[in-house]
Amino acid sequence: MPLHLDEFQKAVFQGYVENVPPQRDYMLKAFLPIEPIYDIDFAYNIINGQYAPAASITGFSAAAPLRDKKELSQAFGSVTKVQHAFRLDEREILKFNAPRSSQEQAKVIDYVYNSTDELIVGVDDLEEFMRAQVLYTGELKYDDDEEDIHIDVSFDIPVENKVTATVVWSDPSSKPLADLQAAVKQFQSKNQRKKPIVMHMTSATEANLLQNEQIRVQVYGQNNGGRLLTPSDVQTALTALRLPPYVINDDVVNLYGQGEVPLLEDGKVVLLGDALGKTYMGPTAEKGHQTGKFIAPKIENDPPQQTVRVGETVFPALQKPQAIVILSV
């Protein structure tokens, strides 16, 4: 049977999982980088700006926010396990045990590797989805009834940091540059006058900027003849006004296997500071209480089936909630 082969034994298979390169660039990992921890429960610091009110976090089962200090507050949580699995049923096992050709047997082996790769992508995607929720909404909500994983955490981004454009950007007469200047000013008020390092938006939001008259005048002057704007023109206008550059995030994940879910909504611009927090990765029993992804192959005889499970324990933690401004446009 496939999982009896040497390449699918625990140690060798684990090495395979650890060395599969990422299938795509997960841009939010740079803002909440991986931090290994060696206990399921963990503590981390909420770093507050000098003029910012104390932040608080309500834990998974806590009825009220945990105690805060003046400029350094501790928040506690648990690292949650995310995992996916696939199953080789009796029919697929039969194809391997009694193949009509060596090619058919090889296809079953390829199926195991390809399906394992898909599990790894699923875990990585879910990890990025969790980071996106934290950075783009200030909350982490996730419900998986099948695996009995339920998360509902608010990281308390200051309410003043959630701002709205004066006129929706789909209106060509809107003033996005003024809106962004106001958003940056709000960011500075919570971060000792530091500016955000980047802004995230979707292509649909960028499309409104490419049609905007205020930006056209900024780039080409009053008598511009309705010239077309390019993304480079928009970035140039932002630079001229000492506004941070923007990056497009159109990434989607297939959440719960129910279709594609965008990481960032259209009509939203998120201004991000640096050193925002960590993605804590904890230990698992399946990996001998070590951190990182695990793989757990399982062979059953009644009925005959083989299962491969891939997962990790992970939790994205926001340590500077005041260093995020969310602009609805």
Notes on the protein architecture:
- The chain has 329 residues and is an alpha+beta fold.
- The protein folds into two domains: 2-157 and 274-320, Super Roll (putative capsid protein of prophage fold), CATH 3.15.30; 160-248, no CATH class.
- 29% of the residues lie in helices and 29% in strands.
- It has helices at residues 10-19, 90-97, 102-137, 176-190, 203-209, 213-220, 231-240, and strands at 34-36, 41-47, 72-78, 80-88, 139-144, 149-154, 162-164, 198-201, 246-248, 252-254, 260-262, 268-272, 277-284, 290-291, 294-301, 304-318, 324-328.
- Strands 1, 4, 13, 14, 15 and 16 form a six-stranded mixed beta sheet that branches. A five-stranded mixed beta sheet has the order 7-17-12-8-9, with helices on both faces.
- A hairpin with a 5-residue loop joins strand 10 (252-254) and strand 11 (260-262).
- Helix 2 (90-97) packs across helix 3.
- The radius of gyration is 24 Å and the shape is elongated.
- The protein starts with 9 loop residues before the first helix and ends with a strand.
Q: Specify the CATH homologous superfamily of the largest domain.
A: putative capsid protein of prophage domain like
Largest sheet: 6 strands, mixed
Order of helices and strands: HEEEEHHEEEHEHHHEEEEEEEEE
What would you say the CATH architecture of the largest domain is?
A: Super Roll
Low-confidence stretches: 46-74
Instruction: Quickly name the level 1 CATH class of the largest domain.
Output: Alpha Beta
Approximately how much beta-strand content do the residues carry?
A: 25-35%
Based on Cα principal axes, name the global outline. elongated
InterPro entries: Lambda_capsid_assembly (IPR053738), Major_capsid_GpE (IPR005564)
Protein name: Major capsid protein E
